[in-house]
Amino acid sequence: MLNNYLAKIKAVIILLLAIIVGAELYSPLVRVFFKVPVNYNDGWNAYHVAQAIAGQPLYQNILTPITYPPFSFYILAFFVKIFGNPLITERLVSIFSILAIGICVFYLVRLFTKSFFESIFAALFCLELFTSFANSYVGMADFQLLGNALMLFALIIYFKFSSVKSLFTVSLLISISLFINPDLIAIPIALVMYSFFYQKRQFLPLICFLILEIFAFTVVSQIISNNHFIYWTLFVRLYFLSHAFYLSFAVFTMLFMPIIFSFIFSFISLKENKYHFFILYFVTSLALGVIFSGGGGININVFFDLFISVSLAIGLFIHKLNPYLKNSPKKRVIYLYILTILILFPLIFNVSNKSLSIENLKSKERMTLSDVSFIKAHKGNALCETIVLCYLAEKSFVFDPYLTNVLVEKRILQETDLTNLLKEKKFSLIQLESLSYYHSDILIQGEERFSNDFLSKLKTYYYIKYKSELGVYLVPK
């Protein structure tokens, strides 16, 4: 009788998780097919993929620098050539990547527990974290989720086959992922440490393959980028301790319960070698998330590995609890109710956009296309802070608002290099996301895309011609 009751509670928990994930996935999935802005990176990536498709050289324009490896753009270009419509294809790759992450989490937990409940719980909980806390990254023209998915696929091969022969494929997938996004180093670090301490026979081949493949990818990237790759990727970066503190604090607040459960799992699993990789992965992803969170232009995406590692840890933790609860029906009921609270906890801090119904998306698309028509009507180069607007208006990408400001901060560019563009009226139109940029002498946003001097000169040489819900549009005086 009790077993039937517990089975029903488990079924309800999985159903509840599936409903939450389905509801959260609805908006980004539908949004894929609408011409609406999603995120700053949406247009940025679309432009560079278009360059790759057209066979144009990357890394050449100082005003549109690239701080990521070139392979992500060529990988997406390959998919676009097959399926067409660059923006939709890139967004669909993101959707399939997040689903692949869920499948990989399911498979990894199943590999170690042989239990369906723990596996499906971990997978759905992982998807819940992504869709609740990083909703704008799901279904956006960005490549990090693809890199995360490939990393997890490499883990599956490593633990499934556990042979030296499979290590070449493992290291190749890791290398490709790193050259999609170089910040994805949590799994490689954890895997190398795990191999060194517990799989010494595999350690040397794994290290050798990784070194050779990473070296080969680096050489190719340097050639493709005309020797700009290493410098732009490693050195054109800003770092803010205050940003690291606030972002880390926000993430720790949102993930408080999962992190606590993961620490408990780590502590009680210290004597079981088979779980040590997952402990290393959790600790590494937590530490690297904090360290990387101070980077300029960085957001919650630096904690994606933490989302995955806590989901894996919780799935394994649930499995480890089973023997202790076997002879205590009351404890088993309590534990299932705790799981229910755990899956509802992220909803308290849910930051996804609940207003994106079909009608709202249609309305936003109409506004977007109206603004795009306005941009198109102005001949010549345009500067859009919401980059995808200029992309949809078929304008050339001639100025990156954020990265040019970084180059000024790094003294690679002079402030006058940018303000002279305004003085010479090089842009027939400039779009700002916020009117406060134009009226305020001090930027209050965390990620400054325009310097105060640039905005001051903007008011001198340009005036506001048009306003919409998507921003304010200025033209030369």
Topology:
Elements: H1 2-31, H2 40-53, H3 71-83, H4 86-113, H5 116-133, H6 144-161, H7 167-178, H8 186-198, H9 200-224, H10 229-235, H11 241-254, H12 256-268, H13 276-292, H14 304-325, H15 329-348, H16 358-376, E1 382-384, H17 387-392, H18 401-409, H19 415-423, E2 429-432, H20 436-439, H21 452-461, E3 462-468, E4 471-476
Helix pairs in contact: 1-5, 1-15, 2-3, 3-4, 4-5, 4-6, 4-14, 5-14, 6-7, 7-9, 8-9, 8-13, 11-13, 12-13, 12-14, 13-14, 19-21
Structural write-up:
With 477 residues, the chain is mainly α. The chain folds into two domains: 2-348, no CATH class; 358-476, no CATH class. Helix content is 67%, strand content 4%. The chain contains 21 helices and four strands. The protein has helices at residues 2-31, 40-53, 71-83, 86-113, 116-133, 144-161, 167-178, 186-198, 200-224, 229-235, 241-254, 256-268, 276-292, 304-325, 329-348, 358-376, 387-392, 401-409, 415-423, 436-439, 452-461, and strands at 382-384, 429-432, 462-468, 471-476. A four-stranded mixed sheet has the order 1-2-4-3. Helix 3 crosses helix 4, helix 4 (86-113) runs antiparallel to helix 5 (116-133) and helix 8 packs antiparallel against helix 9 (200-224). The radius of gyration is 24 Å and the shape is globular. Mean pLDDT is 86; it is low at 436-447.
